Amino acid sequence: MTALAPADVTIVVDVFSFTTCVDVATSRGAAILPYPWNDPSAAEFAQARRAELAGRRTQARYSLAPDSYLAAPAGLRCVLPSPNGAQVTLQAAPNAPVLLAGCLRNAHAVAASAQRLGATFNILPAGERWGDGSLRPAFEDLLGAGAILSYLRGSRSPEAQAAMAVFERHRTSPMEALASCSSGRELELRGHNNDKILAGQLNSSDCVPRFDGEAFVAA
């Protein structure tokens, strides 16, 4: 995060699956509290904040599966650990005057809100991890970042232009692109096809999740 220039608005993008979960949950009136991955203090943190703790897929009511929030009740507070999107959120928050969660589902809504809230923007594709825990680029996050950037006005860095080019190439068929990328194939092998379906629904949501210092809530 030290390489980022100061900006009025910062937008975290983790299409598979943190910010997609955040969009689905907050659009239903829930609050998502990001937390580091595999941190043993998560349960204590959740209890202290009267929140539920998300767990592993198929083992817990709420998890990093976006469809686990489709029936989330309004007022739910859920601590959601994540190795990518949550970690990026927590690292960016101290220096971000405004921090939003963006994905393909809410790309237009988030961009429109960002334009109202500021004039300069940092878009943070969270990326993925290799088996050894090291970071790897993630096509799906580049696609999501490009979608948001395509709705923003102003000059753009070369990296932003590259992300936009990726989105323009797949604008008419984002779900197909997600299905065929490496992360999408990995999800399919694990039986998580609904992730791709929900994540690929371009501009299906008008929710703008904003981080309030502790949780993402609908702005």
Outline the fold blueprint.
Layout: E1 9-13, H1 18-26, E2 31-35, H2 42-48, E3 52-53, E4 77-81, H3 85-92, E5 98-102, H4 107-117, E6 121-125, E7 128-129, E8 135-136, H5 139-150, H6 158-170, H7 174-180, H8 182-189, H9 193-199, E9 209-211, E10 216-218
Parallel strand pairs: 1-5, 1-6, 2-4, 3-4
Antiparallel strand pairs: 7-8, 9-10
Helix pairs in contact: 4-5, 5-6, 7-8
Which terms would index this structure?
219 residues; alpha/beta; putative 2-phosphosulfolactate phosphatase; 3-stranded parallel beta sheet; 9 helices; 10 strands
Residue share in β-strands: 15-25%
CATH topology: putative 2-phosphosulfolactate phosphatase
Count of distinct strands: 10
Helical content band: 25-40%
- How are strands sequenced across the largest beta sheet? 5-1-6
What average pLDDT do the residues reach? 95
The low-confidence runs, each spanning 5 or more residues with pLDDT under 50, are none
Q: Helices and strands: which structural class?
A: alpha/beta
Structure overview:
There is one protein chain. The chain has 219 residues and is of the alpha/beta class. It has a single domain, classed as putative 2-phosphosulfolactate phosphatase. Helices cover 37% and strands 17% of the residues. The protein has nine helices and ten strands. A three-stranded parallel sheet has the order 5-1-6, sandwiched between helices. Helix 4 crosses helix 5, helix 5 packs across helix 6 and helix 7 packs across helix 8.
